[in-house]
Amino acid sequence: MSADASLQQLLDRRPDLWRGRARKTFPAVSTGLAWLDRGLPGGGWPLGRLTELLPRLSGCGELGLLLPLLARCTQRAEPVVLAGPALVPGPQALLSAGVVLDHLVVVREAGESLWAAEQCLKSGLCGSVAVWPPAGRVGERAVRRLQLAAERSPGPTFVVYRPDQSPPPSVSALRLGLSPGPEVEILRSPAGLVEARRLGPESESVVDLERYRRHARSMQ
Amino acid sequence: MPARCNELWLGLHCPQLPLLAAWQCDPEVPELHAVHVHRRGRHVILQAGEAARHAGVAPGQPLNTALAVAPALQSRPRHSRAEAALLEQLALGAWQGSSHVVQAPPDGVLLEIAGSRRLYGGLRPLVEALCADLERRGLPVRAGSAPVPATARLFARHGLHAAGRDAMRRKLHGLPLTALALDDRQAESLAGCGLDSVAELLCLPAPERARRFGPVLNRHLLCLEGRAPTPLAAWRPPETFRLKLELPAASSDSTALLFVFRRLIGRMAHWLDVRDQALTRLHVTLHREDGGGRIPLEVGLSRPGMDADRLLELLGLKLEHLELPAPVEAVELRAESTDEHRPPQADLWSGHNRGDAWPALLDRLKARLGEDGLSGLAPQPDHRPEKAWRWVEPGTTSSCEDERPRPTWLLPVPRPCRRENLRLEDGPERIEAGWWDEEDCRRDYFVARDRHGRRLWVFHEHQPREGWFIHGLFD
Q1: Are the CB atoms for A118 and B361 separated by under 8 Å?
Q2: Alpha carbon B427 to its chain's center
Q3: How do residues B26-83 score in pLDDT, each as one tens digit?
Q4: For the segment B354-385, what is each residue's pLDDT rounded down to a tens digit?
Q5: Nearest-10 Cα torsion for A30, A32, A33, A35
Q6: What does each C-alpha distance from A140 to A137, A169, B70 come to in angstroms?
Q7: Partner residue facing B426 (CB), from A93, A103, A213
């Protein structure tokens, strides 16, 4: 093995090492939203690493942005796990986004969301896992454990913080702040360089309001 | 009435049964161990382990003498209930060789093998298969066969086999009188007559034997010769499995409990195996030492299975989360809901069996989170939004005819809000329903923006209370 190759191998093993502009991007999978894919390093949700979502308020897109991914996974019969969400995901909205509910599992016991997510990740069976850590301070160790487990899972893994929680220093590949709109701010991106820090959809809304208007009109 | 000539009975005899039964729940059996009984006012050794026998402990010895001979000896009183349970296990093992099984308490079973012998390709392969299976399950047995059930039972003690009546008679006659395993009183009266071999005893005319040694012994001898039918009660594996094991000493230690779980599950797996069934639900009850009640544990399997290791893991998880208020003295296991066993189907293309791993994962999660800790979601046909969905068992197929747009997040309970903070964007959608079940509601639903620019699903309620409420969030 040449010295060059072995050096490269060493560097590959340490993705957290600052290497100027020549950083390697992580493998990623499309988010299903063109504007988001264009903005995110690697062109989508990172695989085998954590993606942290920090909604400024609850309901800022922490589920809406994942819907295309969840739909794609469940349509391929890959189980999807939502561990410990504070609110109830609306089944009608999930269905209309194309999610096959047979393959969706919600961990309702919020206090055990981290443990449950870790088990799901370690099994390597889930298409995607999103975990809402229990209310209160989130420990660095807990997130590190999730990161280790995420390396064994084939799909992307999301940690969604509550609006009053601050994330610990972590090893995540991507940290996104979410604001109503939805507007996505890339807060941290060791996964690769980004062009713009603020991203938003071209069209005004993710929700198909036109359909709602039509329906409301027909009811009157 | 002579027995039918084409029958062949196999006797299985477990010589160590009392010893095994008394010590079955100990993770570590001491080297010098024995089991004793209360006989004529004193404790007498019934059986001793191999090391204890080498140390000089012998059956029939008073317990005090045995303890003097081997001070490190640990002896337990005989446990008849545990023996009966082990005998059931033995019968289950025998059931695999024949459908005509008879228990011969206290430590043997009989099975009729004239038909199944052919299936196994002879007597020897059949006996070897049964003995190996039972040995694997911790029940070493001796086997013997004869055309007559009572004789097969006797031959099992001595490892004798006789296929025909003549051979049986010859071998029976060759046995010493002690081989008959008679009780003390009978043995004494026989010895008093100067008899010392079975041949001499059987040569006596039957009425004479009855007069001298009593009708019970005579009847037994007639059965052995095949001149009288042996009373037999056919045994069948029980429809439901129920087994209670007592811990050697009350304990709240999880290793001790897990060991007992392993024993119980091993037995249950055997039962499932024999019946070719699989398990869907398992009930375990821990009996508290202080009589303060029972602690129920329940494990459900999302896919019928019989994997002992998996069940044990699930029980271990349950146990981990259990605060035991008092030591446990006994563990009872009940397996009810059995389904016909379907062997796991491997994925043809990917080779590995993902189909089984997912239910296993769900079971593990449920074991810790509880039945309600993990759910799937399904819409429900109801106009009232709070009744239009429900939690379901994960994997439940559902679809929705309703095309109305609904929010991505629902608040578990609608939250009151102030009208002046909302900017209504769309609506109203009038929902008026529920007069039939006294949860009547009349609401106008709107899509609205709050101060932060979030899109909310709000409603203005007219009935039963007037006001504005947030019901969901368009994420």
Answers
A1: no
A2: 60
A3: 888 888 999 999 888 899 999 999 999 999 999 889 999 999 999 999 999 999 889 9
A4: 567 888 888 888 888 888 888 998 888 877 78
A5: 20
A6: 9, 7, 59
A7: A213
State the alpha helices, DSSP H only, in B179-214. 184-192, 198-203, 206-213
Render B144-171 in DSSP notation, one character per residue.
EEESSHHHHHHHHHHT-B-SSHHHHHHH
- Which amino acid is located at B209 in the chain? R
Please say whether the beta carbons of A50 and A158 come within 8 A: yes
Judge: B375–A209 Cβ closer than 8 Å, yes or no: no
Q: Which two tokens stand for residue B226?
A: 């095949």
Ramachandran bin of A32, using left for φ above 0, alpha for ψ from -120 to 50, beta for the remaining angles: left
Q: Does residue B411 sit at the A interface (CB-CB below 8 Å)?
A: yes
Contact A190, A15 (CB under 8 A): yes
Interchain contact, B452 vs A180, CB within 8 Å: yes
Q: Which of A76, A100, A102 is the mutation pick for testing B, counting most B CBs within 10 A?
A: A102
Query: In terms of pTM, does the model score above 0.90?
Result: no
Tokens of B257: 């409990």
DSSP secondary structure, B102-131, as one string: EEETTTEEEEE-TTHHHHHTSHHHHHHHHH
Would you call B427 an interface residue with chain A, using a CB distance cutoff of 8 Å?
yes
